[in-house]
């Protein structure tokens, strides 16, 4: 092992602020980070959406190099910025430190062409709930028609290089975003006009493609951190380290490793750790601390150097025994001089805090990480989808067994986020009629399930509608009696609803419906038909009455609705039937409820 020591100053120290990047899909989160860190992790990601969380430390001297005269290193005590590359706002909610958001500050990326999208609003809601300060990166300014680019320039400088028309076009887009922030309850303005960043959100126009505005973005992030967060960045750097697992993976030559973000204290090469596990906390000893090269993204860098210790805040890879059941999103704590039982209890308490609540009935959820699992639970909770079991890991036969016991076909389902389905589980699902949904994007997975549920409900409603008596009101036309009885055959006009064969017919006399017969045939222009709709004229055979005795020409007749059917139509299927049928139903109910207000309720 080398004697290299990384980021371990004296005991009293200011740690690096942790920055999260949030925003709607395709608005440029990863491209913006790529521009800052000079690496390209966007290739090979699921649909160009970063689905795991990496950490990149950008030292103050590098920030100063990018930002130029906007950041003078002599003005800052903070050592730089540590960027957490989130796969979207869902994972942001699951990266925690002591029950709060792990990130100290956030960048909300908004496309100047698209403005706010559903995920933008969701991200804002999360930032509001977690009380995380943020700035807005108004991205893709280079796509404004006629834009004259100046690569890597501060935005005020490049703004002045544009024509009046281009500046006006950009201003219009920026103030649309500022207005949308106002609609969500945030006072905002272009960052150089903001006097108090604690009360107003700064908007920084940027281009992740050309680098324009990136100097300003870094300058604002450093300025906010230095001015408002310096006290929060003070840590006991010599104390036992506290962090969060980002990812668990095999590393050639080291076996199972964990990538973690360390946000307090120090982790040393000879430390004992407690790590959150799938069934219980894991107690293990550090075998090696592996640090990627500066500016290298922790997930893609394969060339590591061993270090003796690392101080917060940092992204670090830890090799240790017994990490097979470690979970991404779980807490990591260094034991050192503390009682081991106390540390285990702390980890258990943190795990309990982010445990997914389950119901007696619901769907089975599997995810690749603890963070993903909670993000899935949050998304399903918003969609009011109950969960019967939620676990980290690939879909296995026992998951299929649980799903197969559901009484509701909508819950005979397994939702798997970023996991594999084991072959024997797939076979078992086919035999047990369990439906599997897997995806690498959370909101798409939830949408797919919601579409599936909607299809089942439509099919169920169609089945009910096929087997339920439908309302109809019709009138016997004058001079259209073709046969008086056995059965009576008359010409009718359907005023509202759907007239069907074999349904019973009633006539209202006073406040009581009187059954007069049953429809035994419908003809339109001499051809037999199964039904007649509102506005149509047909001849109808009615078994039972005699025209002139029981029914008369010009009588208004109704299809008789059983009370149970009327209740289902009103309470469950009102939106599924045509408006004229609803009209016939409401008139029928009104007649009944004059004598019995609770009929059909």
Key structural traits:
601 residues; alpha+beta; 8-stranded antiparallel sheet; 7-stranded mixed sheet; disordered N terminus
Q: What is the percent of helical residues?
A: 25-40%
- Quaternary class: single chain
Instruction: Work out the helix count.
Output: 14
Quantity of strands, as a count: 35
Helix and strand content put the structural class at alpha+beta
Q: Give the overall shape, derived from the CA principal axes.
A: elongated
> What is the end-to-end distance?
78 Å
> Which strand order do you get reading across the main beta sheet?
16-15-21-12-13-20-17-18
Could you describe the largest sheet, including whether it forms a barrel? Answer: 8 strands, antiparallel
On the 0-100 scale, what is the average pLDDT?
Answer: 86
User: Radius of gyration over alpha carbons?
Assistant: 34 Å
**Uncertain stretches of 5 or more adjacent residues:** 1-11, 39-53
Determine the strand fraction and express it as a percent band: 25-35%
In short:
Helix content is 28%, strand content 31%. It has 601 residues and is of the alpha+beta class.
How would you describe this protein?
This protein is α+β, with helices and mostly antiparallel strands. The chain contains 14 helices and 35 strands. Strands 16-15-21-12-13-20-17-18 form an eight-stranded antiparallel β-sheet, with helices on one face. The chain has a seven-stranded mixed β-sheet with strand order 3-4-2-7-8-10-9, with helices on both faces. The protein has a six-stranded antiparallel beta barrel with strand order 26-27-32-29-28-35. It starts with 11 loop residues before the first strand and ends in a 6-residue tail after the last helix. Residues 1-11 and 39-53 have low confidence and may be disordered.
């Amino acid at each position: 092992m080398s004697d290299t020591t990384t980021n371990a100053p004296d005991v009293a120290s200011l740690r690096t602020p942790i920055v999260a990047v949030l925003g709607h899909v395709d608005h440029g989160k990863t491209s913006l980070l790529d521009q800052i860190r000079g690496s390209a992790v966007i290739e090979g990601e699921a649909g160009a959406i970063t689905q795991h969380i990496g950490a990149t430390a950008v030292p103050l001297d590098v920030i100063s190099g990018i930002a130029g005269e906007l950041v003078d290193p002599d003005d800052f005590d903070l050592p730089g910025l540590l960027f957490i590359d989130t796969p979207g706002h869902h994972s942001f909610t699951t990266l925690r430190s002591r029950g709060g958001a792990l990130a100290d500050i956030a960048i909300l990326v908004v496309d100047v062409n698209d403005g706010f999208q559903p995920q933008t609003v969701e991200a804002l809601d999360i930032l509001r709930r977690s009380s995380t300060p943020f700035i807005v990166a108004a991205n893709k300014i280079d796509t404004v028609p006629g834009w004259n680019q100046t690569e890597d320039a501060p935005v005020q400088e490049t703004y002045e290089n544009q024509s009046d028309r281009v500046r006006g076009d950009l201003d219009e887009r920026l103030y649309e975003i500022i207005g949308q922030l106002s609609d969500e309850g945030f006072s905002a303005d272009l960052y150089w006009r903001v006097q108090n960043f604690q009360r107003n959100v700064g908007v920084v126009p940027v281009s992740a493609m050309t680098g324009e505005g990136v100097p300003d973005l870094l300058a604002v992030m450093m300025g906010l951190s230095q001015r408002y967060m310096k006290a929060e960045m003070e840590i006991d750097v010599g104390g036992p380290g506290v962090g969060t697992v980002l990812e668990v993976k095999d590393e050639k030559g080291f076996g199972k490793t964990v990538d973690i973000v360390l946000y307090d204290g120090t982790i040393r090469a000879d430390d004992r750790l407690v790590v959150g596990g799938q069934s219980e906390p894991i107690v293990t000893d550090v075998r090696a601390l592996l640090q990627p090269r500066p500016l290298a993204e922790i997930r893609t860098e394969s060339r590591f150097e061993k270090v003796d210790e690392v101080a917060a805040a940092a992204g670090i890879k830890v090799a240790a025994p017994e990490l097979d059941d470690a979970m991404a999103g779980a807490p990591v704590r260094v034991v050192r001089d503390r009682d081991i039982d106390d540390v285990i209890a702390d980890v258990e308490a943190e795990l309990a805090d982010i445990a997914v609540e389950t119901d007696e009935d619901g769907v089975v959820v599997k995810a690749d990480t603890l963070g993903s699992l909670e993000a899935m639970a949050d998304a399903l909770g918003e969609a009011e989808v109950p969960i019967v079991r939620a676990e980290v890991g690939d879909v296995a036969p026992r998951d299929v067994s649980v799903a197969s016991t559901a009484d509701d076909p909508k819950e005979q389902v397994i939702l798997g986020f970023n996991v594999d389905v084991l072959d024997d589980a797939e076979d078992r699902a086919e035999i047990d009629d369990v439906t599997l949904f897997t995806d690498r994007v959370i909101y798409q997975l939830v949408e797919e399930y919601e579409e599936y549920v909607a299809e089942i409900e439509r099919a169920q409603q169609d089945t009910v509608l096929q087997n339920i008596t439908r309302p109809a009101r019709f009138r016997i036309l004058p001079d259209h009696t073709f046969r008086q009885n056995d059965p009576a055959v008359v010409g009718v006009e359907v005023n509202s609803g759907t007239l069907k064969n074999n349904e019973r017919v009633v006539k209202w006399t006073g406040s009581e419906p009187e059954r007069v017969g049953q429809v035994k045939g419908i003809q339109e222009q001499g051809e037999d038909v199964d039904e007649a709709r509102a506005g149509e004229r047909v001849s109808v055979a009615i078994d039972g009455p005699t025209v002139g005795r029981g029914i008369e020409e010009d009588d208004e007749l109704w299809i008789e609705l059983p009370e149970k059917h009327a209740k289902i139509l009103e309470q469950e299927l009102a939106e599924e039937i045509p408006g004229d049928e609803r009209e016939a139903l409401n008139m029928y109910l009104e007649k009944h409820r004059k004598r019995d207000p609770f009929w059909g309720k």
